């Protein structure tokens, strides 16, 4: 992102990105309790931003860990409700639709988990043994968040030792032998990664606000 400020704090239409993300969950039909997991060094700056922007949505602030795995583990360990449904979402996906959030909770409650995903729009090739081979893009899904689970399933999975192959929560849970359920995501549910993504996100947020 070429920014000294962590990207979850960058402004989108004048508001820190993380606040847009929290708003999406808070104003969904599900209205879950919210836990924000941030590196300890970022807590003071985040609190300053909340005061500056009069951000009053309730949440619990938790210390992040060495990796995404450890940060998620810290977050779920703070949840004491045994039958909770837990959604884990990237702070830098501020455009997630409220309908997707609600569907993820509904599906996880019925089937154990729900992982938001979209089909690949592009042709896909895999490098194997120094040779590229074509893959059937109709069988390729790009994984997004939220990734939502019944608490028992998720907490059991996070008792495992960390592995580098754990790239998301679905991969952690799948390691325990649990089947992973995919639900439809959105191409607008983008992960803000590059500077040009900021301009796209601001445009999409502006269009969404026009429709409200």
Which key terms come to mind for this protein?
22% strand, 4-stranded mixed beta sheet, 7 helices, alpha/beta, 212 residues, single chain, globular
Summary?
This protein has 7 helices and 10 strands. With 212 residues, the chain is of the alpha/beta class.
Task: Please specify the SSE layout and strand pairing.
Layout: E1 11-12, E2 15-16, H1 17-26, E3 35-38, H2 43-52, E4 60-63, H3 68-77, E5 85-88, H4 98-111, E6 113-119, E7 124-128, E8 131-135, E9 141-150, H5 151-157, H6 169-174, E10 182-184, H7 195-211
Parallel strand pairs: 3-4, 6-10
Antiparallel strand pairs: 1-2, 5-9, 6-9, 7-8
Strand order of the largest sheet: 5-9-6-10
Give unreliable regions as ranges: none
Helix percent band = 25-40%
Query: Radius of gyration from the CA trace?
Result: 18 Å
Structural class: alpha/beta
Largest sheet entry: 4 strands, mixed
Topology pattern, helix = H, strand = E? EEHEHEHEHEEEEHHEH
Question: Can you describe this structure?
Answer:
The chain is 35% helix and 22% strand. The chain has 212 residues and is α/β, with parallel strands linked by helices. Strands 5-9-6-10 form a four-stranded mixed beta sheet. Strands 1-2 form a two-stranded antiparallel sheet. The longest helix is centred in the last third of the chain and has 17 residues, at 195-211.
